[in-house]
Amino acid sequence: MRTLHNIMQLGVKELRSLWHDKVLLGLIVFMFTAGIYTGATSSSLELHNAPVAFIDEDRSTLSARIRQAFYEPSFSPPELISSSEAGRELDNGRYTFIIDIPPDFEHNVLAGRNPDIQVDIDATMMTQAFIGAGYIGSIISDEINGHVGRAPASVAAPVNFVVRALFNPNLNGIWFGGIMEIMTNITMLSIILTGAALIREREHGTIEHLLVMPLTPFEIMAAKIWANGLVVLFSAAVSLFLVVEGFLGVPIKGFVPLFLFGAMLHLFSTTSIGIFLGTVARSMPQLGLLIILIVLPMQLLSGGMTPRESMPEIVQQFMLLSPTTYFVKFSQTILYRGGGLSVVWPQFAAITAIGAVFFTIALLRFRKSISQTQI
C-alpha cells in the first residue's frame, strides 16, 4: 500500500509539473487538434483540384466536349494554352497535366481512325500524376465513345466481381488519415513526454530531492509512466471524438473503449521506451536526435503507411519486436473493421509482453543512472 501511495503522489507531482510546462502543454494541444486535422487533410490520396491545361489544335465539338468533362473537384477548371507555352508552364509547376489535342482529331475519330492525344504530366507530383493519368484516359475514352455513339468496350467475365468497402465506401483518404494520425501522435507524444520528464528532473535538480526520500527507482519510474500515459490517453480520446468524428466527420464504428484499452497497453511500452531514452540522453536536443533515430523508423515500418507485406522479409521479422506493429494492427482491426476482443487478443498479449521487456530494460537502466547520480 505504501508503494501504491508513493506512485500516486509522485504521479500527481508529474501532472502538476507538466501543467506548468507551457511548451509541452501547447505541443499536446496542437498535436491532438490542429496536428490531427492538418495531417489527415493534407495526406489525402484522392485527385483534388489538379491543375490541367489544353492545347486544342482541333477546335471541334469533340475537343470542346473533352475539355468540359474535366471539372471540379477532381480537376481545376481547364485552361487553354499554346504549344509554345507547354514546356515552360510544366517547368514552372503551374500545371500538372497538359493535354494536346491534334488537328483534325474529330475528323479522324469519325472516320474510324485511331488518332493520338498527347498528355504531358509533371511526374514530380507523384501521387496526382499516377492517379490522374488513369482518370484522364478514362474520361477521354468515355467522351469519344459517347460522341460517336458506341458503347464502351467490355469483356465478358466468367465471374461477376463486386467490391463493397464497409468502413469507407468512398475510399476517402481523410477517413484513414485522421485515425492514423491519432495512432502516430500517441506513440510520439508518450515517448517525448516521459523522456522529457526525466531530463527535466535532471536539469532542475529535483532528481536529487527524490533520491534522498524513501523512494525506490521503481516507484519513480512507474509514476512517470502512469501520469504521462494518462495525459496522452485522455488527449487521444478527446481528439478521437472532437476532431476525428466532429471536424473530420469520420464515423467510428468500432468499440472505442476496446481501442483505448489497447492504447493503454501500448502506452505501457512506449513510455518505458521514453524513460530508457531519457536515461541515455543528457539534454533535450539529444533526446530529439534519439527520437529521430528510433521512433521514426518504428512509425514508418509499423505497417500504418505501407503494408508490411511489401517490406523485405528481414524487416518484417525485425519489426515484430516493436510495439507499434501490433498497435497499428489491432487499431485498424477495431476502428476500421469493428473487430472485438476475440480477434485482437493476440496483439494485446504480444504488446503486453513487449511492454514488460521494455519496462524491465528501462528500470535497469534507470537504476544504473540513479546510482551514477548518487556517486
Envelope shape: elongated
- The quaternary state of the protein chains shown equals single chain
Span from first to last CA?
A: 30 Å
Strand coverage percent = under 5%
Q: Describe the largest sheet.
A: 4 strands, mixed
- Overall pLDDT level: 83
Give the domain tally.
2
**DSSP helix count?**
15
Describe the structure.
This protein folds into 2 domains: 245 residues, no CATH class; 97 residues, abc type-2 transporter like fold (3-Layer(aba) Sandwich). It is built from 15 helices and 4 strands. The mean pLDDT is 83. Strands 2-1-3-4 form a 4-stranded mixed sheet, sandwiched between helices. The chain is elongated, with a radius of gyration of 28 Å. The chain is mainly alpha-helical and 375 residues long.
What are the SSEs and their pairings?
Layout: H1 2-20, H2 22-31, H3 34-42, E1 52-56, H4 61-68, E2 79-80, H5 83-92, E3 97-101, H6 105-110, E4 118-121, H7 126-148, H8 173-204, H9 206-211, H10 217-247, H11 256-280, H12 284-300, H13 313-318, H14 323-335, H15 341-374
Parallel strand pairs: 1-2, 1-3
Antiparallel strand pairs: 3-4
Helix pairs in contact: 1-10, 3-8, 8-10, 8-11, 8-12, 8-14, 10-11, 11-14, 11-15, 14-15
